[in-house]
Design brief:
The complex is a heterodimer of chains A (419) and B (308).
Chain A lengths: L2 H18 L6 E7 L5 H15 L3 E7 L2 H14 L5 E4 L3 H8 L17 H4 L12 E14 H7 L7 H14 L3 E3 L7 H11 L1 H4 L2 H9 L7 H13 L12 H9 L3 E7 L3 H7 L4 E4 L11 E12 L6 H11 L2 H10 L4 E2 L10 H12 L1 E3 L14 H14 L4 H13 L7
Parallel strand pairs in A: 1-2, 1-3, 5-6, 8-10
Antiparallel strand pairs in A: 3-8, 4-6, 4-7, 4-8, 4-9
Chain B lengths: L11 H28 L2 E4 L2 E4 L3 H8 L1 H36 L7 H9 L6 H12 L5 H8 L13 H16 L1 H12 L3 H9 L4 H29 L3 H7 L12 H10 E2 L2 E2 L2 H26 L9
Antiparallel strand pairs in B: 1-2, 3-4
Helix pairs in contact in B: 1-13, 2-3, 3-7, 3-8, 3-10, 3-12, 5-11, 8-10, 10-13, 12-13
The chains are: A alpha/beta (419), B mainly alpha (308).
């Protein structure tokens, strides 16, 4: 969507919002979010569904750019001008908002019973007593591939590490497609779609993640360095000049049909469905040996909470309870295939690619991104350092072992269990 | 009869004329500046702002990691400045010299087109150059290819060794119009009589430039240097719009501005720390203050001025 049409819609929504405020009894709720890609879905599907059931409550969705969201939101909250409902980033970013008194506790919200403890884990105080955001969706990592490209090179969908590199070699040898679409210019793809995508198979998902938090495993251990060794091999399969290739560049390379395999997060599904005119499939991050159990990153990514200083607390709670229903989950999951609902109610998905991703939940063990819980609290933040290290390793400017050591030293400098 | 002795009346109009600038500068520059300096002496302990003296600065310069980031940013910043001094200002002078030559046609056209990038937004410049230099869609690789020099192309913005210089040159491209205009104005103000006298004495062409014009425009070059210095050490926008707040690849384009931004506002999972951010901002202020003082007291007072 172009910036202009977003602007127009924003302007339209303000005018509409102002018009509806004329009714004295109407309450208008404003939602802060970083999902500006979802603007039309909120305005056309989610908000009308809610407003139809709850006359007297109007909802405005006012997103800002993803990269600026945290900074913008913090300033708005400090200034007291933030919306009634706040879209929550997972873990510490939102916990800090709760601790500062910006987010209200949702311990007595009845809708919270619809979620498992794992789903709530990203938006709860360390003692587990006060959840402060209603979980909306998680994203699953894997690889999306161009079916034609794999057929062209005559390779089957890879399941193991060896098959994965054999497939990449075959595509490279055939020469019709760039084997893998990824760049290191924006850095985060290397960490999120690289390291945390393939990593869980090596550190055994939750087992390794919890051991790292407990301090019984270190980032210099083989389980944590091996994914870097894998990433170091990717360099040869990326396009020319991948060092300056940005995230949108990679997306375009893949949807234009110039690249075969795209290390992905499930949030790409909507965009790819709209832009790619070839058949796509998805495969699980390859395991070391065919008999190994697979682990996927099923990352709790997005939730919604209430501004503690909202003047419309009752209406906001009504909205949050509605977000916790199966009805919302169904609308949300189907309008945004690739954002998988976290509520315990079963939801039917229509999109085949999304079905493929969500089917992995029953085949593999789920975990979340290793750096998100607790470990990025201090300085240096492990997540930010991982971006940098993953990009360096792929470019070949830092050895996998050296990267592991640097991250371990950084973590040990402030995190007591790792000292 | 002696005139009636006038009591000197208070000249109110001076105050009235000073007031707008004084009020605006105080509100938007002086107060925030002291606010930042004050903030850098505090730290948040258990949710309360507490006075900690120079602790933030001790961390910034004493802690191995903070110090490494700070010096990296300062060195990058210095290099950014050096590229401007070595490339932008000489080119600006050269362009001004060419423009003030009587033989040049279409002077207004050149003057305008070279100056136009200066008024463009950083975001547009950053985005346009990112596209031009993109290894996938950019015109740079295909243009080099057309003249058979494709092998010279590299993803410059993505390579640690080139990225900062590339950005500095982009910034030079954008701002070369400013030294050009200032020097051009200075050259136009050189009276024709002096140049004619020089010609009578047999001085023309390059020799005339070095011996007559250059000494006369030296004060302008001094002003430009100090403007470049202040501008470069406050640089942020271009790097942020082209490389993002992490100033990649591998912090090789991190300048004090981006370092301060990341620290102050936080980035991704890293939470903002306004106090440390203020400490960095204060350090930037002092660096610029020292630089400007050296210029003002060390150089400007010694510059010779000529009156015609």
């Amino acid at each position: 969507m172009t910036k202009n049409s977003i602007k127009l819609m924003l302007m339209a929504s303000t005018i509409l919002g102002a018009a509806s405020a004329a009714h004295a009894e109407d309450v208008t709720l404003t939602i802060e979010s970083w999902r500006n890609d979802d603007l039309s879905i909120w305005q056309e599907k989610i908000i009308p569904a809610f407003e139809a059931e709850n006359p007297g409550i109007k909802v405005k969705f006012t997103p800002s750019a993803p990269a600026e969201y945290n900074a913008v939101l913090n300033s708005k909250l400090d200034a007291g001008s933030a919306g009634d409902l706040i879209t929550c980033r997972p873990f510490d970013t939102s916990l800090a908002l709760y601790d500062k008194g910006h987010l209200a506790s949702l311990a007595d919200l009845s809708g919270m019973n619809n979620f498992s403890d794992v789903a709530k884990s990203a938006w709860i105080t360390d003692d587990g007593k006060n959840p402060f955001c209603v979980p909306m969706a998680s994203v699953i990592h894997g690889f999306i591939y161009n079916v034609e490209a794999l057929e062209d090179a005559g390779v089957a969908v890879p399941a193991t590490e060896a098959e994965f590199f054999a497939a990449l070699d075959a595509i490279k040898a055939k020469g019709n497609y760039i084997p893998m679409a990824m760049g290191t210019a924006d850095q985060w793809e290397a960490a999120t779609m690289g390291y945390n995508n393939i990593g869980p198979n090596y550190w055994k998902g939750e087992e390794g993640r919890n051991a790292l938090i407990a301090g019984t495993q270190k980032l210099t251990d083989d389980a944590w360095v091996e994914p870097y060794r894998q990433l170091a091999k990717w360099k040869d399969y990326l396009g020319d000049g991948f060092e300056a290739q940005s995230y949108p560049d990679s997306q375009n390379l893949f949807t234009l049909g110039r690249a075969a395999i795209y290390p992905a997060g499930s949030w790409e599904i909507t965009g790819f469905n709209a832009n790619a005119d070839f058949k796509m499939g998805a495969f699980i991050p390859p395991v070391q040996n065919a008999s190994d159990e697979c682990h996927i990153s099923d990352h709790t990514d997005i939730a919604i909470g209430m501004n503690a200083n909202s003047k419309n607390a009752e209406a906001a709670k009504t909205f949050l309870n509605w977000v916790a229903t199966a009805e919302f989950a169904e609308i949300y999951a189907n309008s945004l295939p690739g954002f998988f609902p976290l509520s315990t109610a079963p939801v039917e998905l229509e999109d085949p690619l999304a079905q493929e991703f969500i089917s992995w939940r029953s085949k593999c063990k789920s975990t979340i991104r290793s750096t998100y819980q607790i470990l990025s609290r201090g300085t240096p933040s492990l997540e930010n350092e991982t971006w940098n290290a993953s990009a360096n390793v792929i470019k070949g400017t830092e050895a996998p072992e050296a990267a592991g050591k640097r991250l371990q030293d950084g973590l040990a400098s402030w995190y007591a269990p790792q000292k | 009869m002696p005139d009636k002795v006038h009591k000197p009346t208070f000249r109110w109009h001076i105050l009235v004329f000073l007031a707008p600038a004084f009020l605006i500068y105080t509100t938007f520059m002086v107060v925030p500046l002291f606010g930042t300096l004050q903030m850098s002496l505090f730290a948040e302990v258990d949710g309360v702002q507490k006075f900690v003296g120079l602790d933030n600065f001790t961390t910034l310069f004493g802690d191995e990691r903070w110090a490494a980031s700070f010096w990296n940013a300062l060195i990058n910043n210095t290099w950014f400045f050096v590229v401007h001094m070595v490339v932008q200002n000489p080119i600006g002078i050269l362009l001004a010299a060419l423009l003030s030559s009587n033989k040049l046609r279409m002077r207004a056209f050149y003057r305008t087109s070279i100056f136009i990038p200066t008024i463009l937004s950083f975001v547009i410049v950053g985005f346009a150059w990112k596209l031009i230099l993109s290894p996938l869609w950019g015109v740079a690789p295909s243009m080099l290819d057309a003249v058979g020099l494709k092998s010279l192309f590299a993803p410059w913005l993505g390579k640690e060794e080139y990225a900062l210089t590339t950005l500095a040159l982009i910034s030079v491209w954008q701002f070369v119009g400013i030294p050009m205009m200032l020097i051009y104005a200075a050259m136009l103000s050189i009276p024709d009589e002096i140049l004619e006298a020089a010609e009578c004495d047999g001085l023309s062409g390059m020799a005339q430039f070095w011996k007559i014009k250059l000494p006369l425009i030296l004060p302008s070059i001094g002003i430009i240097s100090i403007l470049t210095f202040v501008g470069n050490f406050n640089a942020f926008d271009l790097i942020y719009s082209a490389q993002g707040a992490l100033a990649g690849p591998n912090y090789s384009t991190d300048v004090l501005g981006t370092f301060m931004f990341r620290t102050f506002f936080g980035f991704q999972l890293q939470l903002g720390d306004p106090n440390m951010g203020s400490a960095i901002a204060s350090s930037m202020f002092f660096i610029i203050l020292v630089g400007v003082s050296i210029y003002l007291f060390g150089i400007q007072t010694r510059l010779r001025r000529y009156q015609f």
